[in-house]
Amino acid sequence: MEINEGNAAVRVVFKTRDDFVHAGAVQAKSGCWTMLKGGLTVNASGPAELYFESENTSVEIWVDSVSLQPFTKEEWRAHQTKSIEKARKKTVRFRAVDAQGNTLAGATFTLAQKRPGFPFGCAIPASIVQNTQYQNWFAPRFTVTVFENEMKWYSTERAPGQEDYSVADAMVAFAKKHNIAIRGHNVLWDDPKYQMDWVRPLNYEQLWNASNRRINSVMSRYRGQLIAWDVVNENLHFSFFEDRLGKDASNIFYQKAHSLDSNTLMFLNDYNTLEQPGDPASTPDKYLQKLREVKAYQGNNYNMAIGLQGHFSQPNIPYMRSTLDILAGAKVPIWLTEVDVTKDPNQANYLEQILREAYSHPAVNGIVLWGGWHQEGCQIMCLTDNNFKNLPTGDVVDKLIAEWSGNVVGKTDADGFFEAQLFHGEYEMSISDPTVNSSSVQGLKVESGSPHEAIIQAQV
Asked: What is the pTM of this model?
C-alpha cells in the first residue's frame, strides 16, 4: 500500500450485506510500499465489497497484491495447538540411575506441576483483603494480579500531600502471602476525567512538582516488589500531561520511572489495539510508533513492554492474531493486561476464544483478566456469583488452567530413559524403583528458551 503524498492512516473495510467490518489499518506513506496485515471473522454469506479508507480525503491510495487466506475453525484450532506445543512446552528426557550410576529400567517418574510457568491472573478490588471466601477462591487459581483502583493516584492522595497507602499495602501483603505477582497499575493516567479536582487547576510548575512527587512516592514505596509498572496509562488515546507539560511529558515520566525501579518492566498500557480494528488512535502502527518515541527520548535504552487491555465485545480473532504478529516485531514482552468481555449470551465462548488465541501466540508473555468480584456486581465481567460458585466464564478459566497444566506419570524404558513433553512451570518430581526398593523426590523447573529438549538425570 502506498499514498501519493505525505503519510496517512489507511483502514481496510469489508462491506457485507448487513454491516461494515474493519479488518486492519496501517500508516501508509508516499515513496514506499507498506504492508497492511489484518483479519476478520465472517459471520455473513453472500458477496462482499473491499474498501480502503482514510480520513485524509486529499490523498490517493494505491493498493497492490491483495491476498485473502481463508481458514476453517478446525484449521485455526490445529494451528493454535501446534503453536502451544512449541511455545509453552518443552520436551524433557529423564534418565534414572542407582547410587552406582547404573541405569534403571522400569523406574516410575511422577511429575506434579506445582506452579505454571505462564503468568495467568485476574484483577482484584480491596474487598479481597477482608473476605476469606474470596481469597480461597482466588489464590489457588492465579499467579499474577493487578489492583483495580487501589494503587492509582486518586486512591492514594485524595488531597494534596495527604497520602494513604494502607489499602494498597494490605493488598500487596495478601499477594505476597500467596506468592502472587503484582502488576503496578498505574503511576499516572493521561485521561483528563480521572484527574482529581485538586490536580486539574494546577499551573505548569505545580503540575510538574505534583507529578514528580507522585512518581517518587508510589515507585519508591513498591520498588522491587512488582513485576510491572503501567507508567502513563492510555497515552495513545489521551494527553492530559502532554497538553499541560509539553509533548515529551510521557517520555520524561518513563525515563524517571526507570531510574527509580530499573529492574522492573515499564509498560505502555492502552485499549482497542486488539479489540477494535476501527479505532485510529491505537492501531498496531500507532502503538509501535509510541513505543519507539518513548525509547528514543534522550537515549532511553531500557526494557519496555506492551500492555494490551483487551476490553472485548464480539472478538475478531483473526485480527487479534495479525495484531500480535505485528507487535511481536518490536521484540519486547507483550501482555494482555485487562481482559474482559461485555455481557452477551456468548460471553463465556468469546472469552475462551480470546484466551486460547493469546496463550497460543508465542509473543504473549502473560494474561490478566479484568474480572474482580464485587458484591454489588462486577464492572463488566464476573467469574463467580456472590457465593463464589463459578459462572460460565469462571468455568472457562478453570477448564483452561487445567488444560494448560497437569501431571505426568511414566516408566523408564530398557535403557533407563523416560521422555515427556511438559508445560513450562515448577514441578515436584518423584522417582521410585521397586527392584531396589528406593525412591526420591526433588524439585524441577521447566523453563522456556533453548534448548527445546533437556535431559535430566535422577538418582533413585
From this structure: 0.93
